[in-house]
Automatic annotation (TrEMBL):
Alphabetized InterPro entries for the sequence: ASHA1/2-like_C, START-like_dom_sf
Residue stretches spanning the membrane: none
Residue intervals of the Activator of Hsp90 ATPase homologue 1/2-like C-terminal domain: 13-138
Pfam families tied to this protein: AHSA1
Organism in which the protein naturally occurs: Paenibacillus ehimensis
Gene3D superfamilies to which the protein is assigned, alphabetical: 3.30.530.20
Protein name: SRPBCC domain-containing protein
Family: Belongs to the AHA1 family.
Length: 139
């Protein structure tokens, strides 16, 4: 059984600024942080199909602190997809839609989740991160 997480976030920003926050490694480091410590995760993300990347944070007794990924789709500024592997391997797809009046909808779909606990964890994590993303967009 494979579960899918589907979330929507609305931001008051331009689609270009939101795209940049999703694809620029220095901006990603400001909002994709260790859920427990809040420390930014170093990464070598590049919006290039086939690019393999890592997000790194302090390891714990339960986790090595590394998220591995590979970029699958880059359709600037509307769609970005990559694998996201930390134990399980998932696929994360972001779809950006300009709603007009300075509003942008960001749709997240994460597929390949194996159980309800992992689904709840992903929902919590992305919800927290997208709250941090909103702060980055206000800068």
């Amino acid at each position: 059984m494979s579960l899918t997480l589907s979330l929507d976030f609305q931001f008051t920003t331009s689609i270009e600024k939101l795209w940049s926050a999703l694809t620029d490694s220095s901006k990603l480091a400001k909002w994709v942080a260790n859920i427990h410590t809040g420390q930014p995760m170093e990464n070598d993300f590049k919006p290039v199909v086939g690019h393999r990347f890592q997000f790194r944070t302090q390891p714990t007794e339960y986790w090595n602190g590394i998220i591995e990924g590979e970029v699958l789709i880059v359709e600037e500024p509307n769609r970005l997809s990559y694998t996201w592997a930390s134990g399980e391997k998932h696929t994360v797809t972001w779809t950006l839609q300009d709603l007009g009046n300075g509003k942008v909808n960001l749709h997240l779909e994460q597929t390949g989740i194996s159980n309800e606990q992992a689904l709840a964890g992903a929902k919590y994590g992305w919800g927290k991160w997208c709250g941090e993303l909103e702060k980055v967009l206000e800068q």
